[in-house]
Amino acid sequence: MKTLGQTLIEAVKEAIEHKGKGNIIRPKVDIAEVRKKLGMTQKEFSVQYYIKLQTLRNWEQGKRTPDTTTLAYLTCIALKPKIVLKMLHPRKAK
Fold first, then answer.
1. What CATH number does the domain containing 83 carry?
2. pLDDT at 16
């Protein structure tokens, strides 16, 4: 049986071997468009979806780009905003 340390070392080696072998597809999300379709101000959107207001502004102004994980989250908001809100605010959804 392998120890935890051995398993972790093997996992790191495997990750290093795969580095650069795949193409990462970054979803395209126009966050300002999504927010406007929802009829929300930047402040309302940032509060409801737990995104720092300045971060949201930076994305919308093109000063910053969300990382891949955040893009996945923003894609969920774009596709199913009510479901995301329900998950984030379960008490309000009742």
1. 1.10.260.40
2. 73
